[in-house]
TrEMBL record:
Gene3D superfamilies tied to this protein: 2.20.25.240
Organism: Parnassius mnemosyne (clouded apollo)
Entry annotated with the keyword Nucleus: no
Keywords per UniProt: Metal-binding, Zinc, Zinc-finger
Protein known as: FLYWCH-type domain-containing protein
Taxonomic classification: Eukaryota, Metazoa, Ecdysozoa, Arthropoda, Hexapoda
Domain FLYWCH-type: 7-67, 72-132
Length: 148
């Protein structure tokens, strides 16, 4: 089976490979012509990596991770949210060390849950105590999500 690489672009323009809900950063060229992508959590000791040809074909995928994936969803109106443990978070700012702060989508209800995500798309801080149940979303035929 031939797999084509899928990419996402973060708000600051960083392009990441997306495979099985995990993200990978470009880490260098490979001899066969193409690039090696290392798991975005390589700094936490994850050794997962993918080799991609110049034509965006996945040549090799070592996908054993030592962590859970960071997942993003796009709503039908175009809003991008981070999804973690059934709760959604929106990008609410930046953190001094570099990266972004995501606040719970129910912050208007007084929820103080938030995450810090590094430039490499790794969760570096997680305050996940919520004062409400998670919202429910369904995936539409177009691949976008809608709140139920």
């Amino acid at each position: 089976m031939i797999l084509l690489a899928t990419y996402i672009t973060l708000t600051r323009g960083t392009r990441l490979l997306l495979l099985n809900e995990y993200t990978y950063s470009k880490s260098g060229p490979i001899r066969a012509g193409g690039f090696r992508y290392s798991c975005s959590s390589v700094h936490k000791g994850c050794k997962a990596h993918v080799h991609v040809s110049r034509d965006d074909l996945i040549l090799l995928a070592a996908t054993e991770h030592n962590h859970e994936p960071t997942t993003y969803i796009t709503l039908t109106r175009g809003t991008k949210l981070l999804l973690l443990n059934e709760y959604t978070y929106f990008k609410s700012g930046y953190v001094r060390a570099g990266g972004s702060r995501y606040s719970c989508s129910s912050v208007h209800k007084g929820c103080k849950a938030h995450l810090h995500i590094s430039k490499e798309d790794v969760i570096t801080l997680a305050v996940t105590e919520h004062c409400h149940p998670p919202s429910k979303y369904i995936r539409t035929k177009s691949g976008l999500y809608m709140k139920v």
